[in-house]
Amino acid sequence: MNTETDMPYPLVRCLTAADLNRVMDIEQSAYPFPWTRGIFADCLRVGYDCRGLQLGSLLVGYAVQTQFAAECHLLNLCIEPAWQRRRLGSLLLEQTILQARSGNCSSVFLEVRPSNRAGMALYRKRGFYVVGERSDYYRARQGRESAIIMRLDLDELPAERLHAVVRHDPF
């Protein structure tokens, strides 16, 4: 157990098709317009980097990213609402950055809803900055919502900023 937070140490591991039911539970509890099971299955099938954050035997979050031409695109990062505000999102974000760096990426891009203030704050705190906007990108209760495009330049990060306090699955 992690005595500081009174919860098990987090484990970041690769997701498999066996995780899809739990991933969908988390996705549907966190988003009013969740990804479909088919989208997650396709991400696994085509080889996107799909990681889960597990506490003990419970999957509490996940991240999906893809890498191409020295760029990483973070497609989805989610922590189950009951587990939010415990720095788990920061930990999972740090892992995605480490994965991008190990894949020789020079930058990480993502889209975030302007209404997702917690997400925007998380990304800004980590050094992401706004580079653009995609109009009418997301479905919303009242029509469509734009996406804010954010970028993190990995080449400009000193090595000591790349860290994570997480145990990796040894398998």
Your description of this structure?
By secondary structure, the protein is of the alpha+beta class. The protein has a single domain (10-168), classed as Aminopeptidase (3-Layer(aba) Sandwich). Helix content is 26%, strand content 37%. It is built from four helices and eight strands, in the order E-H-H-E-E-E-H-E-H-E-E-E. It has an eight-stranded mixed sheet, with helices on both faces. The longest helix has 15 residues, at 88-102. The chain is globular, with a radius of gyration of 16 Å.
Give me the count of strands: 8
Strand and helix order:
EHHEEEHEHEEE
> Helices and strands: which structural class?
alpha+beta
Rg, Å, rounded:
16 Å
CATH architecture: 3-Layer(aba) Sandwich
Specify the overall morphology.
globular
State the share of residues found in helices, binned by percent: 25-40%
Distance between the termini: 21 Å
CATH superfamily, called what? Answer: Gcn5-related N-acetyltransferase (GNAT)
Calculate the mean pLDDT score and round it: 88
Helices, by number, come to: 4
How much β-strand is present in the residues? 35-45%
What composes the largest sheet?
A: 8 strands, mixed
CATH fold group = Aminopeptidase
Q: Tell me the strand order in the biggest sheet.
A: 6-7-5-4-3-2-1-8
